[in-house]
Write a structure and sequence with these properties.
The complex is a heterodimer of chains A (133) and B (423).
Chain A lengths: L13 E2 L4 E5 L4 E5 L1 H7 L2 E5 L6 E2 L4 E7 L3 E5 L4 E6 L2 H4 L3 H4 L8 E5 L11 H9 L2
Antiparallel strand pairs in A: 1-2, 2-3, 3-9, 4-6, 5-8, 6-7, 8-9
Chain B lengths: L10 H6 L3 E5 L2 E6 L3 H10 L1 E5 L4 E6 L3 H8 L19 E8 L5 E11 L2 E6 L4 H12 L5 E4 L4 E7 L3 H6 L5 H4 L8 E3 L20 E3 L8 E7 L3 H12 L4 E4 L1 H10 L39 H4 L7 E7 L12 E3 L5 E11 L2 E4 L2 E4 L14 E8 L8 E5 L4 E7 L17
Parallel strand pairs in B: 3-13
Antiparallel strand pairs in B: 1-2, 3-9, 4-7, 4-8, 5-6, 6-7, 9-12, 10-11, 11-12, 14-19, 14-21, 15-16, 15-20, 16-19, 17-18, 20-21
Helix pairs in contact in B: 2-8
Classes of the chains: A alpha+beta (133), B alpha+beta (423).
């Protein structure tokens, strides 16, 4: 298990308290899970994702991650409509472990209410939250 | 992290290696080090090393120790060894369970006979006190002394096809020790003062009890030694195994390996319900035509004649997806009627389907280019009798999985392979 100081926590994403991250693009956002989350879950062996066009509210479950031991739900850090899913995770779910912020992204959505992004945490706020866990 | 959890003598080693630790049976144990999947696969293709010092060990000694175990253990000690059903003798061990009067499992155990009046019962983490008390209560005025050895003993499991080759490098006299050591036999003792036929000594002089058993379904050994020797034994094995692909393994790999080997986890697959109608019939002293038992024992009156209300079965899924145990998943029949619950659902990462068969990465006849993603497997407990090949659905709050009732899951396991083939 990684110490907090060993975690890869980039500054160009926002973090949710369920350990998803959000990276703003041009009118859409990409979503994945943090290095902390993948380290806690261990080997990801299967990723269940929604379909393009599916709509979710903030905090709603949109898929699941399956590790060798357990199945964990993924929650939407912001509500919106799915415009793309990472098809590469079907053949290589381990990308969630090896590249959580890049090739291991999960869905791209068009946010319903960009104001919801303001409820997410900066890297520093996320680190503070992790210290309290 | 709960302060009340105990640790094994290897705790600092696990933490220093970055293991993900978790509480299990009152101990803080490694769940995995770098990768539970790689650890699982290593045990099937090479070898894995597990810290199993959390397990409890009781000595049962005295002229009436055998009689006490015969009354309380599900195996008939006079007819339990090999296909010939020979009596348990010094150097042999046997798997069974301790039941209460209602025929429900208190815990499962392997009983070792080390001398004419000397036995050892290995039970699960945290169960030493309960089984010790159970034995004392049934002992009455028998000549039998029960001693909990747990806090003095360490145990590591060396499992996988390379296990004997690795052991050869650390034993003082490997040729003698590794000659004639069938499945469920053992040699030596962790206590240098114990009266045993043959000692097993490491090159550095450490006495060990070496047992050809394990909880992975693969060829290998369980090694018992005094706690003061555990870290040096662990490091010696890792050094000896470095050229054989030996990988340190945590409890996650142990769980997925045992599920694929159709071995129960006590308090999950067996527990406070009647120990009958399950995949482990070999743990009960059935007579030849399966109509009754060859001895009576604590709980036997409650098991037969069978009233048939609960049945435990092994299953295997279509792919690697699992149902989540956190959701208390249920079992549905073809008419969507709830017929029971899921006891274990794990993924055996070394197996997959090709055509109408399941292959393992160790299968000599696997198809060319076979790279399995794993299959979910485990146990269900249902209120109706099912037959092998029958399909049921497992349902949690997220998904429904169609799974098949089976007798066996991971093919081509190595646990019973003759030792001479593994040298």
């Amino acid at each position: 298990m990684k110490e907090i100081t060993q975690l890869n926590l980039p500054e160009d994403v926002l973090y949710a308290d369920d350990h998803e991250w959000v990276r703003k693009d041009d009118g859409t956002v990409k979503i994945g899970i943090s290095d902390y989350a993948q380290d806690q879950l261990g080997d990801i062996v299967y990723v269940e994702l929604p379909q393009v066009g599916d709509k979710f509210d903030q905090k709603e479950a949109f898929g699941s991650l399956e590790s060798v031991k357990a199945v964990s739900e993924l929650f939407m850090p912001v509500g919106g409509e799915v415009v793309a899913v990472n098809a590469g995770l079907e053949a290589a779910p381990e990308l969630v472990n090896t590249a959580p912020y890049t090739d291991g992204w999960m869905v791209e959505i068009k946010p319903k209410d960009p104001a919801e992004l303001e409820s997410l945490m900066s890297k520093d706020a996320y680190v503070e939250m992790l210290k309290g866990l | 992290m709960e302060k009340s959890n105990k640790t094994t003598p290897l705790y600092s080693w696990h933490v220093a290696k970055g293991a993900t630790m978790s509480a299990f049976g009152g101990y803080l144990m490694p769940l995995w080090y770098a990768s539970a999947k790689e650890e699982h696969l290593a045990v099937i293709t090479a070898a894995g090393l597990f810290d199993t010092s959390h397990m409890a060990v009781l000595s049962v000694d005295g002229t009436e120790a055998r009689d006490l175990l015969q009354e309380t253990f599900t195996q008939n000690l006079e007819a339990c060894v090999g296909s010939a059903k020979s009596p348990l003798s010094a150097g042999r061990c046997v798997y069974g369970a301790f039941l209460n009067e209602a025929g429900e499992v208190i815990d499962d155990s392997i009983i070792y006979q080390s001398g004419s009046d000397a036995y050892m019962a290995v039970v699960n983490a945290g169960m030493g006190e309960a089984i010790g008390r159970h034995l004392s209560e049934h002992s009455h005025d028998r000549q039998a002394t029960i001693t909990d050895r747990t806090d003095r003993l360490g145990k590591v499991d060396l499992q996988g096809p390379m296990a004997a080759k690795i052991l050869t490098k650390i034993l003082a006299d490997p040729t003698k020790v590794l000659d004639r050591m069938p499945y469920f036999s053992f040699k030596g003792h962790f206590d240098p003062a114990a009266a045993v036929m043959d000692r097993v000594i490491l090159k550095n002089g450490t006495p060990i009890l070496l047992s050809r058993t394990g909880y992975t379904g693969e060829f290998g050994f369980e090694i018992f030694t005094d706690q003061q020797h555990l870290l040096s034994l662990w490091e010696m094995l890792l050094e000896a195994g470095s050229s054989y692909g030996l990988t340190v393994c945590g409890l996650a790999a142990r769980d997925s390996l045992r599920a694929g080997a159709v071995l129960p986890l006590s308090h999950q697959d067996i527990g406070p319900w009647r120990f009958i109608n399950h995949p482990w019939q070999f743990a009960l002293p059935f007579n030849e035509d399966h109509s009754g038992f060859t001895k009576s024992f604590t709980g036997s009156q409650a098991l037969l004649p069978d009233k048939g209300s609960e049945y435990t079965y092994a299953f295997v899924g279509q792919d690697l997806r699992k149902v989540s145990s956190a959701d208390d998943p249920v079992v549905l029949d073809a008419h969507n009627k709830e017929i029971g619950k899921v006891l274990t659902c794990a993924t055996d990462m070394a197996i997959g389907r090709a055509g109408d068969r399941i292959y393992s990465i160790a299968s000599p006849d696997k198809p060319d280019g076979f790279t399995p993603k794993g299959l979910c497997c485990g146990f269900i407990k249902v209120n109706t009798e099912l037959s092998v090949g029958h399909t049921v659905q497992l349902k949690d709050k997220r998904r429904r999985l169609s799974v098949t009732i089976v007798n066996d899951v991971r093919p081509h396991r190595t646990a019973r392979k003759p030792l001479r083939e593994m040298m």
